[in-house]
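Friendly challenge for the regulars: who can give me the structure tokens for this chain first? No prize, just bragging rights.
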Amino acid sequence: MSKRMKNCMLLIAFGVALYACLNNLGSVIGFFQNVGGLLLPIIGGMVVAFVLNVPVRGFEKLYTRLFKKFNVKPKNGPLVMLSLLSTLACIVLIVMLVSTMVIPQLITSVRSVYLTIQARSPQWLAFLSEYGIDTTWITQQLSSFSLSQINIEHIVQSVLAGAGNFLNSALGIASSTISVIINCFFALVIALYILLSKKTLGRQCKKLLYVHLSTPIADKIYYVASLISKTYSRFLSGQCIEAIILGVLIFISFSIFRIPYAILIAVLTGVLSFIPYIGAFCACFIGALLVLMVNPLQALLSIIVYQVVQFIENQFIYPHVVGGSVGLAPLWTLVAVLIGGNLFGVLGMVFFIPLVAVLYQLVKEYTNKKQALQQTAAAASAASKETKADAEAK
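First reply, four minutes later:
Bragging rights claimed.
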């Protein structure tokens, strides 16, 4: 059979398969949903392994330098195991620290904000009423919402009246929760196995890549994968370090100037700083709004202190400790945040920034390469014209 005939047969087969899929679109979608459900723990484990690999590699470099000082060359397996155990120990330590120190302070701060709103809402409503603004709806909402006055009897009666529906809902929630817990457990186990055998898996994937594809295509895929890994690792490690440094500095500065909600604003800063150029400004705005409810003058002071601390951190600490992170311009960072946020919410905002950085780097390299080829061709054409002109002159 000729090559042309094979291409025609493949095209006909593709058309028939596409027609069958469109006629049974519901079944096809259900099939892919089932496959996705089966592969969800594997995909989740790969994502978790990719994220945990950042601190694991950091510990590997640290232990390698320490072993070199004692003229000891560790084996790859024990080194990865030690780095993984160190990473898990740090995660457990952070969770314990947050649960024992940060969360109680956050609960206290949130309760204080709620009490402040309850106490000062009449003044704010009177101020709005002076300017002719209708505050009826706001008054109704504030009067109907109270953390300290909950009608337990009404809740019990509602639960007993809908006991059947409640039981069905509870069973559904329990079933979904168990399924999520099982998937998370298997994803964690898969992630640990991937991290412990990442060198072997890397060699196997590289071998498959170069055996089944041509060398130029394999080189390009390998380069893109390396660029993605390097960019995401640099972004995650850089933003984690920046979040810790900036959050601690904000807490210390606000505590020195006795600005309220220091721990709450510091935690907001640490969480939102994962979104470069935007998250810190959002935390500053939210913090100023919280302080404004207590003292307007301190709200202005909080903005000044926040901006001074952020300036010092950006100019003198972050470049030396972290570096350029992903090296993406503010415009493209904003585009990545908007697209990622609209598609996948907060996680999209965070993970689309390094993705856009990778695309930006690939487009930049392709453009520079094409420009160099055009310049070379133009130079060769000019040289050819000069040679021809010289020959005609002679």
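The chain has two domains: 25-121+168-212, 223-377. The two ends are 60 Å apart (CA to CA). Your move, everyone else.
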